[in-house]
Amino acid sequence: MSWPYPRWIAHRGAGKLAPENTLAAFRVGAGHGYRMFECDVKLSSDGVPFLLHDSTLTRTTNAAALLGPQASEIAGDHPWATLRTLDAGAWHSAPFKGEPLPTLDEVAQFCLQHQYYLNIEIKPTPGTERHTGNVVARHAARLWQNAAVPPLLTSFDVVALEGARDAEPDLPIHLSRGLLLDTLWTGWLETALALGCVAVVCKHTLWDTSTVTQIKSAGLRCLSYTVNDEAEAKRLLDLGTDGVITDRVDLFIS
């Protein structure tokens, strides 16, 4: 597969310069010259794919104050009509107060309008792994059906990636899956190949000459997360890795 994606990828939209996984973060990242963004996608209780990293709403929204102490903290327990009312920006800083959680559809519209690329990390609510992978892949296939380059679908969860693979086996979307790793567990490369992945996305410290050679020999690409140090970025580039996910959109020029 010809690799269509930029080398530099803005983590959660703009790293830490804006509230993560919001359209505001995408705009800030784009303002620093980035053309590819990583984000986390899960499902509301009524099946709407939306952006949020954590399983709970506590850290990055005002759910506790708005919904009350009796409401579930689990994001996936709530319908989209409720999630849409939350403030996902004020926790970061005052200028972003009122920034909403975005849907995958809204993010797709933003990226396609400006010809940006997207890495969608499938982040299922526990117990919904296969279903989340299936729904996210189907939405991505629909949203990017006329695009030259589909999004890269990644996950730490093998079952979620299986769901993504099985959802759209005959569409180009299946060419763009990646396995996320924070450790090199037994059988990781064989699993990536069985899933039809085009890339392995590792915690940056796991890449060395041996692991890069393994991946390249298998015909896959090497991506790294989350790289915020110049010396480490240089080491990874010298190793021949293909992509760097970073918070430091203000330091690295895309």
Topology:
Blueprint: E1 8-10, H1 23-31, E2 36-43, E3 49-51, H2 63-67, H3 80-83, H4 104-114, E4 117-122, H5 129-143, E5 152-155, H6 158-167, E6 177-181, H7 188-194, E7 199-203, H8 209-217, E8 221-225, H9 230-239, E9 243-246
Parallel strand pairs: 1-9, 2-4, 4-5, 5-6, 6-7, 7-8, 8-9
Antiparallel strand pairs: 2-3
> β content, as a range?
15-25%
The domain count comes to: 1
**CATH fold-type name:** TIM Barrel
> What is the C-alpha radius of gyration, as a whole number of Å?
17 Å
Helical content stands at 25-40%
Largest pleated sheet? 9 strands, mixed
The appropriate CATH architecture is: Alpha-Beta Barrel
Structure description:
With 254 residues, the protein is of the alpha/beta class. The protein has a single domain, classed as Phosphatidylinositol (PI) phosphodiesterase (TIM Barrel). Helices cover 31% and strands 17% of the residues. It has nine helices and nine strands. A nine-stranded mixed sheet has the order 1-9-8-7-6-5-4-2-3. The longest helix is centred in the middle third of the chain and has 15 residues. The radius of gyration is 17 Å and the shape is globular. 45% of the residues are buried.
